[in-house]
Amino acid sequence: MNPIYIEIIAIGDELLYGQTLDTNSHWISSELDKVGFKVTRRTTIGDREDEIMRAFAEAEQRASIVLITGGLGPTNDDLTKPCLAKFFDCEVAINEEALEEVTAFFKKRGRELTEVNRQQAALPVCCTKITNAIGTAPGMWFDRNGKVFVSMPGVPHEMKMMMSNIIIPKLKQQFRTPSIIHQIVRTIGIGESFLAEKIKVWEDSLPSHIKLAYLPSTGEVKLRLTGMGTDEKALKKEIDSLVEKLLPLAGQYIYCVGDHPIEKVVGDLLRDKGFKLSIAESCTGGYVSHLITSVPGSSEYFLGSMIPYDYELKMRQLGVRPETLEKFGAVSEPTIIEMANNVRARFNANIGVATSGIAGPGGATPDKPVGTIWIAYSDKYKTETKLLKLTQDRLVNIRYTSTALLGLIWQNIRK
Amino acid sequence: MNPIYIEIIAIGDELLYGQTLDTNSHWISSELDKVGFKVTRRTTIGDREDEIMRAFAEAEQRASIVLITGGLGPTNDDLTKPCLAKFFDCEVAINEEALEEVTAFFKKRGRELTEVNRQQAALPVCCTKITNAIGTAPGMWFDRNGKVFVSMPGVPHEMKMMMSNIIIPKLKQQFRTPSIIHQIVRTIGIGESFLAEKIKVWEDSLPSHIKLAYLPSTGEVKLRLTGMGTDEKALKKEIDSLVEKLLPLAGQYIYCVGDHPIEKVVGDLLRDKGFKLSIAESCTGGYVSHLITSVPGSSEYFLGSMIPYDYELKMRQLGVRPETLEKFGAVSEPTIIEMANNVRARFNANIGVATSGIAGPGGATPDKPVGTIWIAYSDKYKTETKLLKLTQDRLVNIRYTSTALLGLIWQNIRK
Q1: In Å, how far are A65, A392, B41, B49 from A59, measured between CA atoms?
Q2: What architecture (CATH level 2) is domain A179-257?
């Protein structure tokens, strides 16, 4: 099987001038990698016709598949469509199906179709339209001499939906790829180097066609096993048995064999057990609730939250005792215990959890530096607390604390 | 002054396969832009000699300055240095100064210098060494026919220190740069194409040395004016006066002349006016509160939130009347009005805002499809509501609604 050369071209001055971080190319690379396509080059260029035409011509020389993002908006600085028409030497005309789709898009939102919007349905006649289910700019698929050019919008969620639902399946049909199997194992509550030590013997024993990667992110570490071969079934079986051998070494940190985030795993456990959750968030300011409610169907187990950001509200709305706050302060173990217990009782939930701390950059005291954060878990049998000592960075602290709290729930309800 | 073509080449399989997000290229673009250098192209390639040599040759054809990151580590998969030696046709030999630096680096950490580390001090003899103050791989500067190639480590903080302290000052000495001024104008509450129509006359009248870009994201559109010239002060004045002329056309949508997000602009207004904010979030599940509290110092104006996700809690904790819920449902104008008014009253705030809707994918009814979402603003003089009809995508709906709610606050307190 010959290797397939794949290139990504991202178009937009905002990328070149450092105003927008190009996360699209990264996401596309990662999704293609999962199905056995390896990207060989990525190019970023600005909104200039000569640059775009040159990049198309160069990519066509080298690659079999060229994926293009950006430059499809309705305004004058968007040049991808006219450049593609020129490159493939064909006319641009209104595509009736695309016009129906964009008309329906605006109608659904109770808005009139303007001439500018109407022009979004104009496509080079030699391309196959790719429906944009959640936006107004259709994608375009071009075939020439066995090579494929695909153009997608730069808006991330529109591009992602097209890639996942249409483009990747179509590429898999048109190009053969080797069997690649990925298995993600997600861990929480242990750092990368400590985990590496715990599983060293196992890692050293991996066969050469199976690779291990550590993918750390805020508050957790993902392990990714990647196997390459010709017999997909045998490969899958081999990887499953390797994961089995991993469990005795690090099972207490593994919350998911698979790639579900902690908020989904915790949600499934809550649903299965018929538990209802309530949350009192202070320093995390709503981020834990956002994670929980980002999972579809979370209303089945999530009752609600109280965010008593203000000192007074901790007493008035959540019933934390004034003497507790006065004696120990809002960032203290006695306060976090009352917060978790009270939100559970007041919201009539099985489980109450809470966060309180100094996210920074302000608010520190001599004995409570920025990054001092308490979290707690409460059910009818017990209340468990944990003190975190985190960073100087507000957003890192918010995210880390939220992950740690979800980890604390998981540890308590997993059995 | 001729434009200077600058290219960035990022080298590393981990970038191409989507394992590591390339933030280096973004940072370099942004730093160069600040001093008037415009990056014209960015290329990402893997750890393969033929690909690297080809990318060097192509970049030399097009550009005057080529900045390379990555592939300088001590292991065999790091090919940048041998490729550069080959490209510039010169020997690699131990650089005595570099050897002293790497020896001192290890000595300071109490570690012996291994042969592998010693080899990091070997450099192509035709390059100028760039000291790495915080790592072991030196950078390299090559001059040929008036063109410059610079190689830097891929480790972000090492690369950044070299760029800021040595490379950018040296590039500024060697190349004269035009003055470049960017001005961001952020708008909310209007789509890209509608905005484009409103400001068409103004856009058409822009002089050729000033470019306009539309940068849409969920719920808002940024405008970016980029001016290029020789006299920075005159350019700044010209752009300021263009922005002045934009205000009568689209002022009602412009929440920031500058690049602050809506949650920061709303926060500053709340602080300036001495207003206290409280939030009742249902369908957004904490995301509005998270945005508000992501801004440092938000405790000065944000009292707290209630997230009554459960139907019962809307009555028990927020005091929405049972007859309102029964007659109109949780996703209705009468309910959202009570939510906003009640959270304001109960939390003793000046302003109460609320969200309630069907984020999806479940929960739709025949007359309330997924994406039906009510938002409301309440102060002591009035209550204002807005009905949004959004998408099928849960996270898009949550984000769009949150931005729209912040926009509604802004519209009501801006005066």
Answers
A1: 9, 44, 14, 18
A2: 2-Layer Sandwich (3.30)
